[in-house]
């Protein structure tokens, strides 16, 4: 039946607002709107803007009025197109309406389209909807379920972190609905088990795969290796590398990266380096992840020079370092007190076209201030601004902390005002730095004002905030107010740290309340607090007890300190040397006392602590016994390295 002129005109008007392309069949006159792009004869700015806009490929109005336009009928492909486009735009309400209409009209629903809906539910974080739709596939849409649907729903559940739910769903479907799993199914279930820490169960599932006629692929091995490494079962993970090659499954760079990452976290850099050599032998070229992992491992071990050498090797191997690589090296250098070297790496980074992020700049600015290089830190800040890097809370806080360390809290306070004007909200670290800075310069009043301003800004006081305030008040000798703050902290559920305890104990001891200080100390030891006493806490009590001539109690406390794994330092030695000289009759020079302390530490294999006391003895001209000296020196030095160094010196002299 020919289409009338009025209908053609109506259709033309409908299509003029939304460009689309028609696909017609002369046999049954079905039409399907597939895309929305038709050439335009006018090239005005308004039309160009319309062409650039993203619009749905099919108009809902055309979809609804299509059957009324003569003999045209809505084909199944029209519904499929709508499903895909609603899913892409995450319009779930419209998507469900289309599915309901298809059900009412008894349209053919294919699994491919249902899988598209599963993915849409996954993007919308609606795993329950995906499971519900899976259950409705056969009963409501007469759509046959296969392993593809099973895998799609499993993936949605796992992406949402619902690992137990994924395992339950898998068991119910495979056990009752007669869907045979494939390799992807096993990979997803093994991933869920490994994420839950059920590695032994994952291994059992892995061993079942051949019996189900599913051979593990490289992703199966990688997932299982990663799970083993996270459980610190790295040797088993390395054995899997050999097994997969025997089974004819060749490792990928990802496989090696998983193992290298596990070894680096364990600190076994030698085996990690051997794996890199093995990569080359297997034809796998190390990528950015490989180098980044190794560099991070070297930085964690403090081997920054090797990390920088590896960075150079990375460039030589035509593997371009990225901002993660540079950031790792710079952060490692800053932690070792080599912020100037970190600044040089930053220059190299920028020369290669990478822009440092706020964390790199904050680490460098903070590191330079800690080294006393305030001019360099401020210069870096100005250079960062000139390069167009907009400071955020992290960067402003680093600058404020640095200025306070430098002894300029008033200047830091001005930066705080600028920070707030720029829309950056100060955090607890920002306020803690300012309080610490004002206390350090003897301006307690301004420090307390910062505490109040922090409260007015709805910034919650944390343990560090209380610790800074208590420490500052105790340094001012204001025990009464410090104790009030202490009680307020406990009432609010904040647990005191070692600094807060040490400050209060010191203040109590100075006020003559040594017994009360010992009571707080025993609270720390008995586990009522997560904080354990450090050498500073012990030294405060040693000094207080020795001043009271309670030397036996001080020595008992020293024995307890060593039993707790805390080594004495120079302050400890000086306290006891002074006491032995001034408070004993006859006075003792303390050489035998320190020599005995060295031997006790040596017997407990705490060689570094023993060597520090030896240094104190030499500085005080208290010669250790020859046997003591020999034992500690032998334990410190590695004969092979010493021998190699001596041989090198001889070679340099005579060759």
TrEMBL record:
PPR repeats: 182-216, 217-251, 252-286, 287-321, 322-356, 357-391, 392-426, 427-461, 462-496, 497-531, 534-568
Keywords, ordered alphabetically: Repeat
Keyword field contains 4Fe-4S: no
Organism domain of life: Eukaryota
PANTHER family linked: OS03G0856100 PROTEIN, TETRATRICOPEPTIDE-LIKE HELICAL DOMAIN SUPERFAMILY
Membership in a protein family: Belongs to the PPR family. P subfamily.
Name of the protein: Pentatricopeptide repeat-containing protein
Species name: Ilex paraguariensis
């Amino acid at each position: 039946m020919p289409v009338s002129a009025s209908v053609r005109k109506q259709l033309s008007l409908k299509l003029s607002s939304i460009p689309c392309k028609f696909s017609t069949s002369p046999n049954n006159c079905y039409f399907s709107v597939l895309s929305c792009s038709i050439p335009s004869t006018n090239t005005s700015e308004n039309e160009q803007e319309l062409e650039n806009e993203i619009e749905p490929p099919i108009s809902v109005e055309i979809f609804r009025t299509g059957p009324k336009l003569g003999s045209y009928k809505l084909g199944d492909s029209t519904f499929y197109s709508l499903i895909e486009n609603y899913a892409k735009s995450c319009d779930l309400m419209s998507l469900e309406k289309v599915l309901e209409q298809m059900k009412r009209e008894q349209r053919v629903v294919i699994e491919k389209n249902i899988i598209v809906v599963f993915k849409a539910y996954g993007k919308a974080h609606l795993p329950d909807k995906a499971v519900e739709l899976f259950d409705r596939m056969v009963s409501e849409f007469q759509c046959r379920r296969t392993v593809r649907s099973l895998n799609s729903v499993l993936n949605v559940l796992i992406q949402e972190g619902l690992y137990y739910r994924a395992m339950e769903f898998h068991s119910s479907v495979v056990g009752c609905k007669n869907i045979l799993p494939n390799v992807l199914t096993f990979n997803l279930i093994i991933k869920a088990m490994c994420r839950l820490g059920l590695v032994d169960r994952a291994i059992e599932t892995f061993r079942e795969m051949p019996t189900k006629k599913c051979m593990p692929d490289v992703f199966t091995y990688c997932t299982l290796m990663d799970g083993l490494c996270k459980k610190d079962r790295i040797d088993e993970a390395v054995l899997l590398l050999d097994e997969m090659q025997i089974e004819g499954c060749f490792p990928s760079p990802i496989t090696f990266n998983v193992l290298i990452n596990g070894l680096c976290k364990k600190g076994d850099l030698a085996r990690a380096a051997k794996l890199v050599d093995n990569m080359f032998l297997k034809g796998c070229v190390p990528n950015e992840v490989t180098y980044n992992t190794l560099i991070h491992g070297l930085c964690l071990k403090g081997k920054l020079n090797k990390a920088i050498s590896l960075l150079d090797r990375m460039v030589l191997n035509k593997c371009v370092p990225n901002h993660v690589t540079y950031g790792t090296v710079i952060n490692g250098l800053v932690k070792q007190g080599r912020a100037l070297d970190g600044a040089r790496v930053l220059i190299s980074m920028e020369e290669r076209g990478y822009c440092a992020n706020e964390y790199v700049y904050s680490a460098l600015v903070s590191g330079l201030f800690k080294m006393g290089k305030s001019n360099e830190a401020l210069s870096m800040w100005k250079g960062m601004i000139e390069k167009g890097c907009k400071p955020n809370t992290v960067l402003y806080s680093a600058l404020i902390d640095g200025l306070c360390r430098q002894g300029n809290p008033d200047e830091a306070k001005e930066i705080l005002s600028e920070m707030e004007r720029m829309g950056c909200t100060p955090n607890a670290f920002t306020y803690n730095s300012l309080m610490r800075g004002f206390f350090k310069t003897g301006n307690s009043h301004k420090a307390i004002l910062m505490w109040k301003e922090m409260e007015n800004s709805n910034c919650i006081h944390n343990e560090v905030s209380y610790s800074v305030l208590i420490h500052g008040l105790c340094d001012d000798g204001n025990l009464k107010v410090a104790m009030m703050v202490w009680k307020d902290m406990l009432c609010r559920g904040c647990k005191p740290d070692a600094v807060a305890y040490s400050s209060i104990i010191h203040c109590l001891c100075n006020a003559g309340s040594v017994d009360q200080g010992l009571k707080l100390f025993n609270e720390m030891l008995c586990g009522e607090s997560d904080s354990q006493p450090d050498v500073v806490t012990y030294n405060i009590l040693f000094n207080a007890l020795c001043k009271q001539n309670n030397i036996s109690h001080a020595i008992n406390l020293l024995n307890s300190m060593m039993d707790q794994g805390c080594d004495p330092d120079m302050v400890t030695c000086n306290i006891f040397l002074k006491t032995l000289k001034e408070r004993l009759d006859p006075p003792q020079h303390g050489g035998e006392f320190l020599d005995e302390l060295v031997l006790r530490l040596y017997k407990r294999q705490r060689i570094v602590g023993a060597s520090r006391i030896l240094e104190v003895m030499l500085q005080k001209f208290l010669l250790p016994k020859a046997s003591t000296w020999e034992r500690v020196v032998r334990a410190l030095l590695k004969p092979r390295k010493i021998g190699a160094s001596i041989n090198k010196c001889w070679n340099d002299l005579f060759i």
